Amino acid sequence: MNWIIRMMVITVCAAGLFSASAQAKDIMTTIQAAADDEFVLFLNGKKILEGVGWGQARIAKVKLSKGDVLAVVAKDKVVYKAGFILSAAGASTFVSDTEWKSYTGKELPNWNQKKFDDSAWQKATSYGVYGEQPWGKGVKEFTGEKAHWIWSGKNETAGKENDPVVYFRKTVK
Hints:
The protein has helices at 2-14, 20-26; strands at 28-36, 38-43, 46-52, 58-63, 69-75, 83-90, 94-95, 101-103, 122-123, 125-129, 148-151, 165-171. It is mainly beta and 173 residues long. The chain has a six-stranded antiparallel beta sheet with strand order 3-2-5-12-8-9, with no helix packed on it. A four-stranded antiparallel beta sheet has the order 4-1-6-7. The longest helix has 13 residues, at 2-14. The protein is globular, with a radius of gyration of 19 Å.
């Protein structure tokens, strides 16, 4: 019986339908994220990452599938330019950009769940790709060169009208 299973694995590998590298690493996605000033990141409602301060990326390895939802609550504690940035690489590859949805009202029930209807949410606003000011390239362990710093539309440098809390959502394609 054992030789039958081995033959099946060899046949599948020889046919190019399966490989050890795909099994070991390609199904995982590495997420790097940071926020000015803090964030909590959820995957289908489950907290997977959080961080305070924008100078250090927080990193998680997760398994993502088409249709999964990443949801973020980000908070600005200092009235200055705020932002959230994320890069995902591996089996799923994407960055924070204007394709993310954003919301700035009162926290809604189940907003971080996969089945939540975010169709009324606005597109996030980009405040520049990684490397642009005011943040520059000051996030340690962040390598997402194409990622955008995103927030709501109310986000002025030294502005008193900034949104202090923004909710974001991204559906994995």
